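ok so I'm stuck.
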Amino acid sequence: MRKIMIVIFSFLLMVIFFTISLSVGTVTISLPDLFSSVMQKDSQFSFIVMEYRLPRSVISILAGFGLAVAGVILQSLVRNPLASPDVIGVTKGAGFFAALVIFLFPDSPAYVLPAAALFGAFFAFILLLIISKRLTISPAAFTLVGIAVGAIFQAGIQYLIVKFPTDINMALLWMSGSLWGRGWNEVLSLLPWIMILLPISWSQYQKLNVFQLGDEYSKALGLDIIRQRFLLLLLSVSLAGVSVASVGSIGFIGLIAPHIARQLVGGRHQYIIPLAALIGANLMLIGDSIGRVIIIPREVPVGVMTAIIGAPYFVYLLRKERKRN
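replied:
not stuck anymore, here's the structure
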């Protein structure tokens, strides 16, 4: 009962942060005006709310869901609390291929950039699998290989920035993770993926619970480890890839949200998955809201805000793991 109450409380927090996200910005909108803007199309602030802030807030929630649940699956499979899509190179792969489009094909149609980012995420995943298989490494060492793969893509991004310094603004905005300019098109492109992949992820909670026991116990319980690990990794990369393709290279959500959820509700994935998804959405909403008001009329990208929130927590996790070992 306590675990269910924590999930419900996190949902209520998301509703509160969602309302705040609709209210704050260069123009602050009161709750009565916000309500009338949603209900009446000819209201004073209806255009700001319905065409600018509402889709932006919705995509914050959807991307937070995707990145957080991707982190849950990944951390459970490799049994490493420091693993996340951005740590193992998936986000960097998406960023590199997005940068290729921005720098080499600046006049491409709008749909090419997210498609390239999604392709880059899966390319990084395939490269990670190939290297891991050749080295026959343990699941724990999988994270270290991912860091190396991410470093390769990051070097490629830096090369493109140096090579094409005149086209740097759009690339930096995308790679820092920004919700600026996101509208209903991005919501409609991300929503079907999340609606399909999120229930599938939750349906795999029993397998994730078994994987937590270790490979030997998983085999003893009749689990096809290699096949199931591949399918679950593919699910994690799909969630991270579609999220990054929509909002850019946002880090730390997939690292922090699963760990906080695990601290609150224990190791049962039937609770971890929904709670982590809600925490991820809340972090996105908080980061975006603060980023919009901290230097009005300009804004700080949400990826920068999540990094400010997440970096100290990452250091805390490192110190905790060091003491444990």
